[in-house]
Design brief:
The complex is a heterodimer of chains A (82) and B (598).
Chain A (H helix, E strand, L loop, with lengths): L1 H5 L11 H11 L4 H4 E2 L2 E2 L3 E5 L2 E2 L16 E5 L7
Antiparallel strand pairs in A: 1-2, 3-4, 3-5
Chain B lengths: L6 E6 L4 E6 L2 H7 L2 H12 L13 E5 L13 E6 L6 E6 L3 H7 L4 E5 L6 E6 L2 E6 L8 H11 L5 E4 L2 H4 L7 E3 L3 E3 L4 H7 L2 E7 L9 H17 L1 H10 L4 H7 L21 H7 L1 E5 L9 E8 L2 E6 L3 H7 L8 H14 L3 H16 L5 H4 L8 H13 L4 H4 L3 H7 L8 E2 L2 E2 L9 H9 L12 H6 L11 H18 L11 H12 L5 H21 L11 H5 L14 H12 L9 H6 L4
Parallel strand pairs in B: 1-6, 7-12
Antiparallel strand pairs in B: 1-2, 3-4, 3-6, 4-5, 7-8, 9-10, 9-12, 10-11, 13-14, 14-15, 16-17
Helix pairs in contact in B: 1-2, 2-20, 2-22, 7-8, 7-21, 11-13, 12-15, 13-17, 18-20, 20-22, 20-24
Classes of the chains: A alpha+beta (82), B alpha+beta (598).
Chain lengths: 82, 598
Amino acid sequence: MTRRAAGLAHLELEGATVADVLQRLLASYPDLRPHLLDGDCLRPDICILVNGRNIKYLEGEATLLDDADTITIFRQVAGGAP
Amino acid sequence: MFGWMGTILRVNLSTGTITREKLDGKIARDYIGARGLASKILYDELPSGTDPLDPANLLIFAAGPLTGTAATSASRYNVVTKSPLTGAIAASNSGGYLPAEIRYAGYDMIIIEGKSEEPVYLWVHNDQVKIRSARAMWGKGTGETEALIREETDDEAKIISIGLAGEKLVRFAGVVNDRERAAGRSGVGAVMGSKNLKAIAVRGTGGIRIKDVAAFRDAVLDNLAKIKSGAVTGEGLPTYGTAVLVNVINSHGILPTNNFQRGEFHGAEAISGETLARELLIRNRACLACPIGCGRVTEINWEGDEERGEGPEYETIWALGAACGISDLELITKINYLCNEYGLDPITLGSTLACAMELFADGALTVEETGMPLNFGDGQCLLEMTRKTALREGFGDVLAEGSARLAEKYGRPELSMTSKKQEYPAYDPRGSQGIGLGYATSNRGGCHVRGYTIAAEIVGAAVDPLTSEGKAQLLIDFQDFTCVVDSVGMCLFTTFSLGLDDILPLLKAATGVDYTSESLLQAGERIWNLERLFNLREGLGRQDDSLAPRLLQEPLSAGPAKGNVVELESMLDEYYELRGWDGEGRPSSEKLQALGLG
């Protein structure tokens, strides 16, 4: 969903924390704002991973980043096959 | 009766006897229907130690008390038998339109006993039931079989059939209904083939009696609103289908690759739901009364011809894709179409091929045995071996036994990614501990839909997937609730938006039985324990509640779960204790009495 809203699948951004990167992402792609934020807060149905680990189990949006880190953003819209 | 039709149709193919039995009201209340009720009948009637392919095995097609009503996504039935793949209880689930037709014809379930001397099909037209010759259909695929039977019966008939895999007793043959819906797992199609039963055609024109129509309508509308507004059921599944999981699971580093040697697949994007939606999707397809419509009608250009079919689903894409190192989505889709025609379980097929590929890479298998190289990433060999497996031709005869027997035969049993001899689905449990416990304790062997903890560990991120703490109780909650969902006849996908308290008013209004949340969940627990008792009676126990050695001893080499294995033993001890079972996994007498099983 976020991919469709932004019109792209991958991009490179700089930032010391997840919050920094989100800020830069939204500055570049303002159409993403309603897909990611509820007011000024991250929507509860948005999952953000840093190198595959949900930031909920790291330091949240304050999670520190290294140069080669990969951030993945997706909405909780997925289900498996019965 | 309300909700239930009140009648069981029983057919003995050895004697040609057709009987109708009254459904016992108390048993119906206690075991609900579909999976639960059929498991109760199998447990009561099947002598322990019966060979699954012996005529004495029962094959039960069972709908639930909500199947065929207006309840959201209540389109399901279960095919219950003793599995030729695992030796354990098999309960394989499918949707579409056929399950409701069984109820409209006046039955809660159809029980097949014995074995016909000649290939036959069963024609059920309301109260008229006939056993007819299937000589004209034997050797045909499921699509052609449906068309031929419809010509002989009724244009509106709904049909269950087996393909060549079922006829050839492939241990992981499934049964296919409505052309492309499958009760695919655990080899229920091989049991059907062993009885020389090619198909069941059903035409029903009756209705289902609802006890409190106004309350039922209110509950349906309430649930419909929740389904429509839910992120997964209202948006994700309708837009991308189940395949949207490929990128999500790969991002978590738990997309099993090359027979679970890795958890990240470089070709994931090429086989993702996004790619499928962009390149192959024609439209969605829904089962009866389903507002979700997760089914994908797809089209491929295959060797110059346009072919259209349904799928592939996430698990299929994984099994025929990442598990075998293959990133050609069109080829995966073609093999998926073939699996529907042959009546093959694509999860076990792909996983068995992945096992064979690792055996080949290790030199335990050579071209002398296989007839052709079996290399990871070689789609053409997968295509060829699919055909050979369905027909039990050449090396396909070995593959048709599943990966556990294959790996055992070539001296490397540890390379079979199975529990209770059934292959795992598409989540590496080293990065999602709860599903690892789920694979180990599943009553039907390696499986994700007995207790889909992925919903909490990955999709909803409600619990940390890397910890084993609290996973035993989480899994038990999922397992017992899933027993309820499968037994009322609803689709498991509704549970992304609905809970027990949403199903409760539907069931009460339909049946008039004064269930409570507690008694309904206890019915789920009763069903789980009954399935366990069946397996214990067949000689299974704690030693079978295990995982492939790779998952217990070889840490993942990359990704967020790098360095992790499944912490099974501690979770299993806690699981048994919480279940009220002893250290060997046997329910205590107190537990059995509390559940009415003592």
